[in-house]
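Revision sheet: structure tokens.
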Amino acid sequence: MTLSFLALVAGGLVYLLWRSPTLWMFGWCEVLGLGRHLASLRAVAEQHEPPHWLLYSFPDGAWAFAGTVLMRGIWTSCESAMKSFWIFVIPVLAIGSEIGQRFGVVPGGFDVNDLVACVVAVSLAFLIQSTHAPHDIAK
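Predicted:
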């Protein structure tokens, strides 16, 4: 669970520090009383422009990684007919949505870097969990 949480936080931080403040997560920060603190952090972050791939593709990969690690951690030790479905739901959604954007089936702009980030992230999640006990990594 920790590895999944850290990946979610990393992807979220990129959004909070450099992406448009019109996104929903900024409203959540306001509700939590973090708006002033976030504004200070964004002021510092504005002085450092991240590479394009970090700003736009890394969050997709981080979230695909987090979801894959979490689902594998939850379902690997279970014996269920739905096991494979749940283990692969995040990778299929992440990679499939990028491919869907390419063909206009899913709204959004296709970016090959996003697709690569998702494929690499999902592969990394499976690789890490194949060399370690998945339930240990998901904790």
